[in-house]
């Protein structure tokens, strides 16, 4: 079995994807909306890494959810079926109820495909009431952010 998405490294946290034929429009380029799925999927794999378990299990256990408050893209090139690319995840900012994950999509040759900013808002699980970033998530985000900045200074 060939996987079309997998973690290639954890520092920096990087996902490798292969574009599926069904991700593309009749002109043979990835539909814009599919990039949203790529980013959300990368975030879920990132959460699994930093929380040490399935993200939905962790959120259920701790009673919070992270629906998307904002999602912004800067597209710099297109992708076609069978193209492989990496998505590198970093924690750009942590605020009181939200945080922003910065994601760089790059070809394997290093050319930028897109830059995305995903900003979830923390809510009570099962409600749409905003809450402060739960300590378990905040600590995990800060630990990853600290490890990243330490890696940049080594």
Automatic annotation (TrEMBL):
<dbReference type="GO" id="GO:0016787">
    <property type="term" value="F:hydrolase activity"/>
</dbReference>
<protein>
    <submittedName>
        <fullName>Acyl-CoA thioester hydrolase</fullName>
    </submittedName>
</protein>
<dbReference type="Pfam" id="PF13279">
    <property type="entry name" value="4HBT_2"/>
</dbReference>
<keyword id="KW-0378">Hydrolase</keyword>
<dbReference type="InterPro" id="IPR029069">
    <property type="entry name" value="HotDog_dom_sf"/>
</dbReference>
């Amino acid at each position: 079995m060939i996987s079309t998405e997998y973690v290639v490294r954890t520092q920096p946290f990087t996902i490798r994807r292969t574009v599926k034929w069904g991700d593309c429009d009749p002109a043979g380029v990835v539909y814009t909306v599919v990039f949203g799925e790529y980013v959300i999927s990368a975030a879920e794999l990132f959460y699994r890494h930093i929380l040490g378990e399935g993200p939905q299990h962790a959120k259920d256990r701790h009673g919070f959810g992270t629906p998307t408050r904002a999602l912004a893209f800067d597209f710099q090139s297109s992708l076609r079926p069978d193209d492989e690319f990496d998505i590198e995840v970093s924690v750009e900012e942590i605020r009181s109820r939200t945080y922003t994950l910065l994601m760089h999509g790059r070809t394997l040759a290093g050319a930028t495909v897109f830059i995305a900013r995903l900003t979830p808002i923390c809510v009570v699980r099962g409600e749409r009431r905003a809450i402060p970033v739960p300590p378990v998530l905040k600590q995990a985000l800060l630990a990853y952010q600290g490890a990243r900045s330490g890696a940049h200074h080594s």
